[in-house]
Amino acid sequence: MGEMSMSFLPFTRPTIDEETIADVAGVLRSGWITSGPKVQAFEAALSAYCGGRPVRAFSSGTAALEVALRLAKVGAGDTVITTPLTWVATANVILEVGATPVFVDVDPATRNIDLDQLAARITPQTKAIIPVDLAGLPVDRDRLYAIAGKHPLRVIEDAAQSFGATWNGQPIGTSFGDRRDFVAFSFHANKNLTTGEGGALVLPVDMDLALCERLRLQGFQRFADGGMDVDVLGGKFNLTDIAAAIGLGQLKRLDEFTARRRELVQRYFAGLDHTLGLQLPLADFANSNWHMFQVLLPDGTDRGAFIATMKEKGIGIGVHYPALHLFSLYRAMGFKPGDFPQAERIGAAIVTLPLFPAMQDADVDRVCAALTQTLTQALA
Ligand SMILES: *Cc1c(COP(=O)(O)O)cnc(C)c1O
Fold first, then answer.
1. How far, CA to CA in Å, does 180 sit from each of 57, 72, 156, 165, 300?
2. 253-378 homologous superfamily
3. What is the 257 CA–ligand 1 centroid distance (Å)?
4. What is the DSSP string of 303-322?
5. The predicted structure's pLDDT at residue 380
6. What is the pLDDT of residue 351?
7. If you take atom 14 of ligand 1, which residue's CA is the nearest one?
8. What are phi and psi of 280, to 5 degrees?
9. Name one Pfam family in it (predicted).
């Protein structure tokens, strides 16, 4: 067991370099560890990355999404369209602000929201749409904004997984629409750029940044004359300088990380046995940041048994994600099996194979071999 756990290959692992660790130690020794100069520097660096758009840092991607909905004035009586094939945070924030989620099934080629169906589901009650770039593959920004631009709604891009990805050469986080759109990033430990926990919100040009900051921290404001007030109910969503120092160190390595992920994925495409009946992801080496490399297991494979066997072979396999409308909370709202057949089929068969920048070529080969062995035995 000891030997096996030493060589265990997790499905992901952050790469934190010694320089970053030293910077974090510097923050810890500085006497100021909550939001301060490092957060400001991180926000400035993120803003530069996002073409100069205003960016505010948050304690999580979920918090950034929730504040985006509040800034877009989405609440009771409004509907928000999103995909059922995402991390549950995307839909939970819609409920959190009192609005109603409307799910649109995914396109099996991209596993992202089906834009034809999306266009048909927009109504006067639709206050916002939250497209998700699953696994780091961007939703087609040209088509998305062509559809959204015809309606008085806000786009809130859930780019939790697509930091470092591009669309037609332009980084995700820059503006593809009419600049009324929001972009939310997550810096959770598993994301391509991490701060341990954290997130950021890229804001539209017409937004009140001071209101965004109040929604981030208790609605509190301090005036130049020393007076104070709370005029709106805010959360407790600020990022720490400790986390921001990690983010600044990560940002320097982002392009390198993305390039290495692409190389490893190319090796997966070349090395996977194409006769096993696996369904591979769209081979996009122009836009995707390859946050995850996900395959659909062949029909009839027992996913639980597959994951257990791979674990015995020292390989960590993830599941991202079961279709979220089938969770109890959503079933209690009336959603049921059969509502979104593509998301359900994909969510039931999908597995995430190991992929992170520090992985070696030999690790990919090992995963491919173990996968062939496991599926050949399972299918025999
Ligand atoms: C990670 C993630 C979130 C939430 O981000 P947190 O930082 O964990 O709050 C939201 N949406 C998607 C698609 C995610 O992958």
1. 19, 10, 9, 20, 45
2. Aspartate Aminotransferase, domain 1 (3.90.1150.10)
3. 19
4. HHHHHHHHHHTTB--B----
5. 55
6. 98
7. 160
8. -85, 160
9. DegT_DnrJ_EryC1
> Which residue pairs from 169-176 have beta carbons closer than 8 angstroms and sit at least 24 positions apart in sequence?
169/286, 171/49, 171/50, 171/51, 172/133, 172/138, 172/289, 173/46, 173/49, 173/50, 173/51, 173/53, 173/202, 174/50, 174/51, 174/53, 175/51, 175/53, 176/141, 176/142, 176/144, 176/145
Query: What SS3 class is residue 12?
Result: coil
Asked if the model's pLDDT at residue 378 lies above 90, the reply is no
pLDDT digits (tens, 9 = 90+) for 190-217: 999 999 999 999 999 889 999 999 999 9
Q: Which CATH class is domain 18-251?
A: alpha beta
Q: Look at residue 377 in the predicted model and tell me its pLDDT.
A: 87
**CA-161 nearest atom, ligand 1:** 15
Active-site position among 191, 311, 313, 336: 191
Q: Is 191 a catalytic residue?
A: yes
Going by their DSSP bridges, the two strands 228-230 and 220-222 should be labelled as antiparallel
State yes or no: cis peptide before 321, omega within 30 of 0. yes
Looking at the chain, the whole-number percentage of residues with pLDDT higher than 90 is: 96
Tokens of 79: 């509907």
Q: How many CB atoms lie within 10 A of CB 349?
A: 19
Please give the average per-residue pLDDT across 77-97, as a whole number. Answer: 98
Q: How confident is the model at residue 6 (pLDDT cuts 50, 70, 90)?
A: very low
Query: Per 3-state DSSP, what percentage of the chain is helix, strand, and coil (rounded to 5)?
Result: 40, 15, 45
Which has the closest alpha carbon to 356: 23, 109, 42, 16? 16
Q: CB atoms < 10 A from the CB of 205, how many?
A: 10
- Identify residue 206 by its one-letter amino acid code: D
Q: Averaged over 135-152, what is the pLDDT?
A: 97
Asked whether residue 17 carries a pLDDT value surpassing 90, the answer given is yes
Domain positions in the chain are 18-251, 253-378
Ligand 1 mean position to 321 CA, how many Å? 12
The chain-wide mean pLDDT, for the chain, equals 96
Q: Which residues line ligand 1 (CB under 6 A)?
A: 60-62, 86-87, 89-90, 132, 158, 160-161, 186, 188, 199
Please state, in angstroms and rounded to a whole number, the distance separating the CA atoms of residues 380 and 378: 6
